TrEMBL record, chains A, B:
Keyword check for Kinase: no
Entry keywords, A to Z: Oxidoreductase
Protein name: Ldh family oxidoreductase
Any matching Pfam family: Ldh_2
SUPFAM superfamilies: L-sulfolactate dehydrogenase-like (SSF89733)
Family under the similarity heading: Belongs to the LDH2/MDH2 oxidoreductase family.
Source superkingdom: Bacteria
Length: 356, 356
């Protein structure tokens, strides 16, 4: 993530978490929902996933105050078969839906080895990694996917069709923090385009197209992201985004990304009907646990021992995030001047003390 | 796939299938194994996946005659929990392991909604898509992944570490052929590099590196593929390849790609111990079947209706394959002059009639 601004201040995660919960309480958000939102945002911010961390709180406040998000949802889980179920999220916060679904998936995996939960009538759930990570922290392999509104072109397509449709996969590693892949199926997120446009910085080639569908590196001309793989191999990124659509829109009965109301649109009163899908597996439902553990350790040791290119570094998915988390746990989570202003404004409007 | 050679001849799939089964029978391969190999190779060749189709037969004959592959395996399936199991493939053909595993996964999905099978002590299974496709043909959502020997660099790594580690995902579509994504987690396969080197054609940028780990477009200098996403975003392709390693090497107790004997190495007597992983889901274990069916249809209609760039075409994963299959079913499967020579040589050596 490019640094567009030096941090104006740093605040301890625990302090930010209290602020988030208070702000949401002021919006009549029930306790399970505000706990889940704050937990997911702090998890992302600690890891350095700033696009999906604390900066989203003002957006969520607008969405819940506008009526798009239900502050006191009556979520209902139906276990349709021993290994599968459907969570009706009642237009509540996606973060509560995500943590709830992953608990049900874990419970089913405990019984039958594997569990999958499709979630419908939900909303933005923050970083997909939070839920896969929760599975891995508890010793399971976890997968989490979600559809999103149209921002990404199809391969050879003119305009946006898929969302950035993230895929998050996490696996436990003995005596280490988990393996954690959390990736959009586009090369870059849309907020990167906005950041680059704001400071007139050139984008790398092959990541966005202009109004005519032509490649550009001028962020101010970008109207659509390209799928991972760019102009030559974007059929792969688009195919992965399609897999995410099937799992989290088709298999949940929700609208696919192209038909979804935009997350950042003006309509803050209509629920968007977002779908997610979660999968959890017990490693010892396949091989003995010590075999799995040894395999993870050996694989990651070989990976991290690989010689790096000059000036580069070979990392496993998650390594950068855990390093950032250790740093931020010690030094506090950075807020840039825009975050500070947004949080001060929120504090004033909701009559609660600002965190920084 | 670039055409390096006009087809020397075309042969009906059924004729090729008979030839393949005869050739394998001459190598003492048992009936289930030879059926499975021929079925997978013909499936791939009909769809135009030439890298994983009929061209592999001479390689498989060498591998089974050399002792690397067990011609009469005693595969054993253990259902460890109601939704999960392990298939010990006894160093037999990966194609038989794949079709066997997907049947067990389907049977478990019928009972508990979802089924996953880890396969160990297997061998090359051809195109990953064959097995996901079999699930989709029967009305299920299917996923199939496999590790492979080291040909792909890590992001910022100097040399090969992961295999091309394919991800295949298939879903049923009412009254249409399935949605079928079958992709390597590198941008291109290694045999594309070899083809381009043979005709001195330049590769696209960002797909291979030379001995020093520097980007090159000169196929003759390539020593390693880059992961999908290339020099800038290869951490995503590498992360996906890692997900495949966890599922098909760690969760099967097999060696990860970096430690695997090379598929095309000289040692044709030592079993490689390849691992695969398969997942099958019943759509109606999540939502009503008609909701799923309508969702698939609506999604693919919207997708195919998207305006294309000039000179391009917007396709769903599988569309190109099904078009090729219709053409090849009508006109025969093309053999280039190298295939014709290899098949003639095989026919002579095994004393069976050549197919063309």
């Amino acid at each position: 993530m490019p640094r567009t601004d030096e941090p104006a201040t740093r605040v301890a995660g625990a302090v930010l978490q209290v602020f988030m919960e208070r702000a949401l309480a002021r919006c009549e958000v029930d306790e399970p929902s505000r706990n889940a939102v704050a937990r997911a945002l702090i998890t992302a911010s600690r890891m350095g996933t700033d696009s999906h961390g604390l900066r989203l709180l003002p957006h969520y406040v607008r969405a819940v105050q506008g009526g798009r998000i239900n502050p006191r949802p009556a979520m209902r889980f139906t276990r349709r078969l021993p290994g599968t179920g459907y969570l009706y999220a009642d237009d509540g916060f996606g973060h509560l839906a995500g943590y709830t679904a992953i608990e049900h998936a874990i419970a089913m995996a405990d019984e039958v080895g594997i569990g999958a939960v499709a979630v419908g009538r939900s909303s933005h759930f923050g970083a997909a990694g939070c839920y896969a990570l929760e599975a891995a922290r508890r010793g399971y392999v976890g997968l989490s996917v979600c559809t999103a509104d149209a921002l990404v072109s199809l391969h050879h397509g003119q305009g946006p069709f898929h969302g950035t449709n993230p895929i998050a996969f996490a696996a436990p590693v003995p005596d280490q923090l988990p393996y954690l892949l959390d990736m959009a199926t586009s090369s870059i997120p849309w907020n990167r385009v906005q950041q680059y446009a704001a400071i007139d910085r050139e984008l790398p080639p092959g990541v966005v197209v202009d109004r005519q569908g032509n490649l550009t590196t001028d962020a101010s001309q970008a109207v659509s992201l390209l799928p991972l793989g760019g102009a030559d191999f974007g059929f792969k990124g688009a195919g992965l985004a399609g897999m995410v659509e099937v799992l989290s829109a088709t298999m949940t009965g929700m609208l696919h990304g192209f038909r979804l109301l935009p997350m950042s649109g003006d309509d803050m009163s209509t629920p968007r009907g977002v779908g997610h899908c979660f999968l959890v597996m017990r490693p010892d439902a396949f091989v003995e646990r010590d075999v799995f553990d040894r395999g993870m350790r050996d694989y990651l040791k070989d990976l991290r021992d690989q010689p790096a290119l000059e000036g580069g570094e070979v990392l496993a998915p998650g390594d950068r995030e855990w390093r950032c988390q250790a740093h931020r746990d010690a030094e506090g989570i950075p807020l840039d001047s825009a975050n500070v202003a947004a949080y001060a404004e929120l504090a004033e409007r909701l009559s609660i003390p600002a965190p920084a």
